[in-house]
């Protein structure tokens, strides 16, 4: 009998009469929860679990228009579009031959794009569930839709950024340095994009002219590869994060660095002995608050730093047990969400630095997550081959 059959049979067992069960109680406890690693409780706070992936699930996006559909991509070379309310599959984005690491809906939810590591990008029309365009580039680093148009931007390991009109496929390339374009973001005006590179440089591109407006390198750039970029709501400020543990605030109009946020190590690290790994730290994710002059930076060592932009100072340090993978701000409040390598999603009040709540359910690290517009649900993807939907609406907010 399968696990499901057993589960059905279990439902008919009456556990009320506990007295009689006592002698066997120990036998129950010795059975390990399979797949639950040490320290990861078997508690599951999620409402819906999507389990069609057969390997780690790397990415998730919600459709911007209705927030009712999710797209997930994974190490199993598969991407699926499914309903958030019940985990029901809408269609599979088939044909990838490598891990699907990027997936997202166009601004109006008409199209969904999926991209795999080897650089095959496919676009599907959501209502018709059919592929309308595909293209192959070099090894894919990141991909994102234009905020107002059916235009797709992607960065590749050869240093190029590509821009296509969908579905016509009209194409433009932006040549960076001869090293991977590690992260990128289209600015809210839709006319410029900021791209970060492995050599520590950052460029602001004019999308229409195809020219580079500003280049930050040397002292203005980072000492190590860029890992993430973000902009504030009006696009006037850009923030870049890097393996060098610095986050830089940049004026997007002038290309000048406004300030640098450096994370001081809590304790001096002992020199590593033979064969020992030096504990590494880096900026993994960052973002701006829409309602207060605050920015959040998440580090691999588990620190969530809330910076005050008006005073350019550290406001709060929120410590996690393990590394932060990604952070997102709520659209209309000073609440920041983090997901981490310990498999939990946490909500933090950036004004007080206090944790509001924590949600568990994954038996491995969370690799990506998305929050819907009214901040009532969070969709997570994990190394445990699953995507989960959590209801996070708090009555007091």
Please outline the helices and strands.
Layout: H1 3-11, H2 18-21, H3 25-30, E1 48-50, E2 57-62, E3 69-74, E4 79-83, E5 89-92, E6 100-105, E7 111-116, E8 120-125, E9 130-136, E10 140-145, E11 151-156, E12 160-165, E13 171-175, E14 181-186, E15 192-197, E16 202-206, E17 211-216, E18 226-231, E19 237-242, E20 246-251, E21 257-262, E22 283-288, E23 294-299, E24 303-308, E25 313-319, E26 324-329, E27 335-340, E28 345-349, E29 354-359, E30 366-371, E31 377-382, E32 387-391
Antiparallel strand pairs: 1-32, 2-3, 3-4, 4-5, 6-7, 7-8, 8-9, 10-11, 11-12, 12-13, 14-15, 15-16, 16-17, 18-19, 19-20, 20-21, 22-23, 23-24, 24-25, 26-27, 27-28, 28-29, 30-31, 31-32
Quick recap of the structure?
The protein is mainly β and 397 residues long. Mean pLDDT is 89; it is low at 13-37 and 266-270. The strands form eight sheets. The protein has a four-stranded antiparallel β-sheet, with no helix packed on it. A four-stranded antiparallel β-sheet has the order 2-3-4-5, with no helix packed on it.
